[in-house]
Amino acid sequence: MNRKDLNPEASPQAAFGARLRSSREARGWTQAELSTHMGISGGHISGVETTRKTPSLRFAKAADKAFGLTGTDVTFERQWREMQHGSLLEGYPEYATYEGRAAEVRIFETGAIPGPLQTRDYARAFANSAVQRGVITPEQASERVDFLIERQAALFRATPPLISVVLDESCIRRPIGGPGVMDAQLVRLLEFAEMPNSGLQIAPYSMGEHRPFSRLVHLLTMADRSVMSYVESETQGQLDRELTSVLPLMRDYHQLQIGAASQAESVAVIAQLRKEIS
């Protein structure tokens, strides 16, 4: 029987496959036996172990159930999520985990509505565009959207965090997915503004050079009052817990809020924009 040797460092997919194989062999299971535990064919398991097949979110969750990892910090699901986001956006999977437990979340975004506030159709428009460009498969597009919806559920939980969002004016003016999708997205923003734990402001173009940020900035305050930041470039994300570098961003965010339109003014702008695109 030929056995393909795996180099876990070759790619995230190879690391996933190698870990699946080693976990299976540690239990003394054949691929057929693991198939019984996971409810997934042995051929598909073989394909994932040898990188001939790409694991799905469903596959990762089934592996966690089979190996008793569900709810731990070392799940296959977490590794899968890192495969989806970690290669281009280092630090993002870890950030998303902290975001779901934060006491306060501050968000600035430019160019597009941030993930926590996106409707499914708005998010799907971005994912479908990536499929058309050949960046991801249709299955991966669906998984990305599902991941986003799960991330939103963690933010809007029974005891939600305080969420402050400042959107550059470009976020609401850039048409995504057609008039119907965009209108529903604007409605989602108006609904968010009515929530008791939310704050929504638009940073108008007129702020000009006084807008302190030029790219996405997320700031978290945890229940123990520790703080962290997450920023992105075009190809990288960075999670930072160092107080000396996070505090200046906190101060800049405060200045951003002072210069941005009030929530009442921002809601009026969004409502007027709905009329213009209808």
Q: Mind explaining what this structure looks like?
A:
The chain has 278 residues and is of the alpha/beta class. The protein folds into 2 domains: 12-84, 434 Repressor (Amino-terminal Domain); 88-113 and 158-277, Endonuclease Chain A (Endonuclease, Chain A, 2-Layer Sandwich). The protein is built from 12 helices and 6 strands. The chain has helices at residues 12-26, 31-38, 42-49, 57-67, 76-85, 92-99, 120-132, 138-155, 169-173, 179-193, 243-259, 263-277, and strands at 104-109, 162-168, 198-203, 217-221, 227-232, 237-240. A 6-stranded mixed β-sheet has the order 3-2-1-4-5-6, with helices on both faces. Strand 4 and strand 5 form a beta hairpin.
Q: How many angstroms does the end-to-end distance come to?
A: 64 Å
Structural class: alpha/beta
Uncertain residue segments = none
The overall strand count is 6
Compact summary:
By secondary structure, the chain is an alpha/beta fold.
Features:
single chain; 278 residues; alpha/beta; 434 Repressor (Amino-terminal Domain); Endonuclease, Chain A; 2 domains; six-stranded mixed sheet; 12 helices; 6 strands; elongated
Topology, element by element:
Elements: H1 12-26, H2 31-38, H3 42-49, H4 57-67, H5 76-85, H6 92-99, E1 104-109, H7 120-132, H8 138-155, E2 162-168, H9 169-173, H10 179-193, E3 198-203, E4 217-221, E5 227-232, E6 237-240, H11 243-259, H12 263-277
Helix pairs in contact: 1-5, 2-3, 4-5, 7-8, 10-12
